[in-house]
């Protein structure tokens, strides 16, 4: 199947999936899209994408199907619907952050259909997806992944091949577990400096040049200083990903006490009403606990 024969179906047009779809459409590929919320298809239709009526419609019209969905249960439901409706030889690209164990099972189901599953979770922001700057972790048939490079390069700048389907999801879960811990510890430490009376901008500038900094401290805390907590990657999704990490550690019999504490921080943030705000909104918890705000 040559690139000019590709019919790319994209299922799930949320923050990440929508920008991935925009990037693919903008590069001239034949794209069919579907989301349970029809409002998010409007822009893509204006850009030239076809909007499918339902999952069965997109399965019938696509020979490559890319999924970017919120959780394991939704991914399972989608694949149960579409797997029996596609032609043999279909390529599935699964980009969600979900249970690695399920992806192993899904790979068996896809193989039984004489098709291919590429496990392709991402690291980066929706804006980076739109601009082709994502970091991608790839698991699956390496030859197929290489053939897909013209498509993958629409939204990804780096592709790290890590092994079989499920392996890439495991790497992504570990990455996000580290991310949520980094942001929570940074928020706790930063609030101590604020309570002592250090100017917030000065504190950020010094820490951002010092050994305690992290990628997400540098990326997200400038927004927090501007009181911009727009949900680029929400507290709710962060808590979900920590839960995935804890489930993985339990299945492997690896103690993870720090991750358990991190999960509680994000759960408390959700209960305080910050669930749809960016993960850096955990700083607001510490501001409240330290009586830094009225």
Automatic annotation (TrEMBL):
Its EC number is 1.1.1.31. Residues 7-163 form the 6-phosphogluconate dehydrogenase NADP-binding domain. One of its GO terms (biological process) is L-valine catabolic process. Residues 166-286 form the 3-hydroxyisobutyrate dehydrogenase-like NAD-binding domain. Signal peptide: none annotated. It is an enzyme of class 1 (oxidoreductase). The active site is at 172. GO terms for molecular function: 3-hydroxyisobutyrate dehydrogenase activity; NAD binding; NADP binding. It comes from the Bacteria. Keywords: NAD, Oxidoreductase. Pfam families: NAD_binding_11, NAD_binding_2. Coiled coil: none annotated. InterPro entries: 6-PGluconate_DH-like_C_sf, 6PGD_dom2, 6PGDH_NADP-bd, HIBADH-like_NADP-bd, HIBADH-related, NAD(P)-bd_dom_sf. PANTHER family: 3-HYDROXYISOBUTYRATE DEHYDROGENASE (PTHR22981:SF84), 3-HYDROXYISOBUTYRATE DEHYDROGENASE-RELATED (PTHR22981). Belongs to the HIBADH-related family. This is 3-hydroxyisobutyrate dehydrogenase. It comes from Salirhabdus euzebyi.
């Amino acid at each position: 199947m040559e690139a000019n024969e590709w019919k790319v179906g994209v299922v799930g047009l949320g923050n990440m999936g929508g920008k991935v779809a925009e990037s693919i459409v903008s590069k001239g590929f034949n794209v069919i899209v579907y989301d349970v919320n029809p409002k998010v298809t409007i822009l893509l239709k204006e850009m030239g994408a076809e909007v499918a009526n339902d999952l069965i419609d997109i399965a019938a019209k696509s020979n490559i199907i890319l999924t970017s969905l919120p959780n394991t249960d939704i991914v399972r439901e989608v694949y149960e619907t579409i797997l029996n409706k596609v032609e043999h030889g279909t390529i599935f690209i699964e980009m969600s952050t979900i249970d690695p164990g399920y992806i192993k099972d899904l790979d068996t189901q896809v193989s039984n259909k004489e098709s291919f599953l590429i496990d392709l979770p991402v690291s980066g922001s929706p804006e980076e997806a739109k601009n082709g700057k994502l970091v991608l972790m790839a698991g699956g048939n390496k030859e197929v992944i290489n053939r897909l490079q013209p498509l993958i390069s629409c939204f990804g700048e780096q592709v790290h091949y890590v092994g079989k389907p499920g392996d890439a999801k495991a790497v992504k879960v570990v990455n996000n577990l580290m991310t949520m811990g980094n942001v929570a510890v940074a928020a706790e430490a930063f609030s101590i400096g604020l309570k002592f009376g250090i100017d917030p901008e000065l504190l950020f500038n010094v820490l951002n040049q010092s050994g305690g900094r992290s990628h997400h401290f540098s990326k997200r805390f400038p927004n927090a200083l501007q009181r911009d907590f727009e949900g680029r990657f929400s507290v709710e999704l962060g808590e979900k990903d920590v839960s995935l990490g804890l489930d993985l550690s339990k299945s492997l019999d690896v103690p993870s006490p720090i991750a358990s504490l991190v999960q509680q921080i994000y759960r408390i943030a959700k209960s305080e009403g910050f669930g749809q705000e960016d993960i850096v909104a955990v700083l607001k918890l510490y501001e409240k606990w330290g009586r830094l705000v009225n």
